[in-house]
Amino acid sequence: MHVTIPYVVAAALFGLGVHGVIRRRNAILVLMAVELMLNAVNLILVTADVAVRSALVGVPGEAWANPNSQAGSGGVFALFVIVLAAAEVGVGLAIVLQYYRMRKAVAIDEVPLADEVQE
């Protein structure tokens, strides 16, 4: 399989995520767009790992560069990104829910900046 297809799909997913972050006003939808961008990065990591492993056939090197080894470095990095995304969702949703309890809205445009807050 050509690696061009997953790269194009990942670029489209990342582009949709960037569009979602720029255009959305709802904080929960912005968090979902960030998750979409992180999933695009996961797809790129795994695809690059497969492409590099297939290109290194017959090349002597370290254990991480051996295409016959069972450990996939792209999959390991993708697992770290998934863990990071889970932590981001937990913290982000906690912040959004607390803000909703205080202000009864989750629109990003209505969030006052630090220098605009007046008590």
From TrEMBL:
Catalytic activity: a quinone + NADH + 5 H(+)(in) = a quinol + NAD(+) + 4 H(+)(out)
Top-level enzyme category: translocase
GO process terms (BP): ATP synthesis coupled electron transport
Physiological role: NDH-1 shuttles electrons from NADH, via FMN and iron-sulfur (Fe-S) centers, to quinones in the respiratory chain. The immediate electron acceptor for the enzyme in this species is believed to be a menaquinone. Couples the redox reaction to proton translocation (for every two electrons transferred, four hydrogen ions are translocated across the cytoplasmic membrane), and thus conserves the redox energy in a proton gradient.
Protein name (Swiss-Prot/TrEMBL): NADH-quinone oxidoreductase subunit K
Membrane topology summary: Multi-pass membrane protein
PANTHER family: NADH-UBIQUINONE OXIDOREDUCTASE CHAIN 4L, NADH-UBIQUINONE OXIDOREDUCTASE SUBUNIT ND4L
Family: Belongs to the complex I subunit 4L family.
Subcellular compartments: Cell membrane; Membrane
Transmembrane stretches, start-end: 6-22, 29-56, 76-97
Gene Ontology CC entries for this record: NADH dehydrogenase complex; plasma membrane
EC code(s) of this entry: 7.1.1.-
Keywords, alphabetical: Cell membrane, Membrane, NAD, Quinone, Translocase, Transmembrane, Transmembrane helix, Transport
Main subcellular localisation: membrane
Oligomer and partners: NDH-1 is composed of 14 different subunits. Subunits NuoA, H, J, K, L, M, N constitute the membrane sector of the complex.
Alphabetized GO MF terms: NADH dehydrogenase (quinone) (non-electrogenic) activity; quinone binding
InterPro entries: NADH_UbQ_OxRdtase_chain4L/K (IPR001133), NUOK/Mnh_C1-like (IPR039428)
NCBIfam families: PRK05715.1-2 (NF004320)
Origin species: Actinoplanes siamensis
